[in-house]
Design goal:
By secondary structure, the protein is mainly β. It folds into 2 domains: 141 residues, no CATH class; 45 residues, no CATH class. The protein has 1 helix and 14 strands; from the N terminus they run βββαβββββββββββ. Strands 6-4-8-9 form a 4-stranded antiparallel sheet. A two-stranded antiparallel ribbon has the order 1-3. The termini are far apart.
Length: 203
Amino acid sequence: MYSLSLENGTQVFQYDEKGNSPASPQLKNPMEIKPLTFTLIDNTGKEIPHEQIKNNGYIKWIIPNTQTMLLSKNNGTPEKGDTDLTVSRTDLALPASSYDVYLNNDFFNYGIENRYDIKKNVNYIWLHIKFKDLEFDAYTDFTFPKDGDPGTNGTDYVVKISSPYDSDRVYISEAEDKVDNALFDDYGNSFDKLEFLVYNDSV
């Protein structure tokens, strides 16, 4: 039985409270992002050389180019419009026509965004290999946590609404005969008094 393993494919990229990358060159000791590579083992337990794979098939590194914290670096010119690609894992999503394909690279170099963005949530790289009449897939396991409130997207200021009641949720209600809105918590209490906490997370 053949087996495909992806090297350096499990990483945690911890952004700070200001939304700065752990690999930022401005840091004293920035995180090193090692290139991805792989090993394909045949059914006798022997490693198949990359050149042999390319001579009898292909190596494809597939990376999203929208909605992602990932950046491709120094991998040559990507191929686009490879419409026959289908993600083989149902728990992953790769938007159609929103990825680049890099062909026959032994290693795949990538970087990450300098600033955190919670909306960029398509954050894995897909390795697809064809060798003779066999096909194999492997996926990175990347995590992008952020210190502090992740919803700030790296902004310097945060505004939070705190309830004077014992409640974690707030609702907005708009009466038909009123122009302004009213805020209610999940116990039905109206907010006669709102408490706004504004702080600067850049200091």
